[in-house]
Write a structure and sequence with these properties.
Largest sheet: none
Oligomer: single chain
Shape: globular
Strand content: under 5%
Structural class: mainly alpha
Distance between the termini: 26 Å
Length: 72
């Protein structure tokens, strides 16, 4: 587990979701998911993900889909 970049990922995901018109609860859920993905392995650059990669990671970890989150 490597927590480097988790806060940055959370902030970026939240701002991006709000800018794309998602509700605050959905934006928060997406931001938490992005931060969780970042701490799942070593190295910041290796853990960066776009919407599709994040959705695949969530599905592989039995996390529910976040409706309204862009996939790219």
């Amino acid at each position: 587990m490597d927590s480097v970049g988790a806060g940055d990922a959370f902030s970026a995901a939240y701002v991006a979701a709000i800018a794309q018109g998602l509700s605050v609860p959905r934006a928060m859920r997406n931001a938490h998911r992005c931060a969780a993905h970042m701490v799942g392995g070593a190295g910041v650059l290796a853990r960066l993900a776009d919407g599709r990669a994040l959705a695949a990671w969530a599905a592989a970890n039995d996390l529910p889909a976040v409706r309204g989150v862009p996939s790219a």
